[in-house]
Amino acid sequence: MFGVVFPNRSFPIDISTFVQIDTFHWVLDMNHFVGEAYDQIGEMCIFLLNNFTLPPDKALAVYVQSPGSPFSFCGAVTLARPSAVLSLQWPEPGSAAGDSAPLSAKIGISVEDAASLPSLDVAAERKIERLAMKVGENLFNFMQSFCGVDGSKLVVPMDILDRWFKKFQERAKRDPGFLKSFAL
């Protein structure tokens, strides 16, 4: 059906390592695999095996769950995209109460309607989000160096955005690694 590899951590793992919950859901208990160091697993390659027939409108969705947190979508594979290296963004461990609170981290796999899933390129979306946050932080730090205080208000020169943007563009032209440092 499908296989999984954790880069630099494992040999290929097939479906038999996962616990099958029902016809369309499987779970890998990370406690058995890496103990409490689940958050050190940052990537996962998932691939469809040749004998697995997934309907064209379906996807094999991948989710991660930290102890006490809900499952969080990471990405998916389809017949059109039969393999993917997914970034595993583990949610912060929660404090879910009751007997249903998971005691270990898990990776969940499920067959779902492809149309109902978020974008299949979650890693790219998260990189864009980090890029935007770092550019915003750069702007904030630049503006902060020119701030004055007028009562309870911060006062900045009117041309501060133009000055920042020119400086940002000049640095990007001078230093090819400058923008790449934002995307890490």
Low-confidence stretches: none
**SS class:** alpha+beta
Strand content: 25-35%
Cα(first) to Cα(last) distance is 34 Å
| Sequence of secondary-structure elements | EEEEHEEEEEHEEHH
What integer is the average pLDDT? Answer: 82
Main sheet strand line-up: 3-4-9-6-7
Rg over alpha carbons: 22 Å
Helical amount: 25-40%
> What is the overall silhouette?
elongated
Largest sheet: 5 strands, antiparallel
Treating each run of at least 4 consecutive H or I residues as one helix, how many helices?
A: 4
Number of strands: 11
Family: Belongs to the OPI10 family.
Organism: Brassica carinata (Ethiopian mustard)
InterPro entries: Hikeshi-like_C (IPR048364), Hikeshi-like_N (IPR008493), OPI10 (IPR031318)
GO molecular function, one term: nuclear import signal receptor activity
Write up this protein.
The protein is elongated. The strands form three sheets. Strands 3-4-9-6-7 form a five-stranded antiparallel β-sheet. A four-stranded antiparallel β-sheet has the order 2-1-5-8, with no helix packed on it. The longest helix has 23 residues, at 122-144. β6 (58-65) and β7 (72-77) form a beta hairpin. It has helices at residues 30-34, 122-144, 160-174, 176-182; strands spanning 2-5, 13-14, 19-22, 25-29, 43-48, 58-65, 72-77, 83-87, 106-113, 148-150, 153-155. The model has no long low-confidence stretch (mean pLDDT 82). The chain is α+β, with helices and mostly antiparallel strands. The protein is built from four helices and eleven strands. One of its GO terms (cellular component) is cytosol.
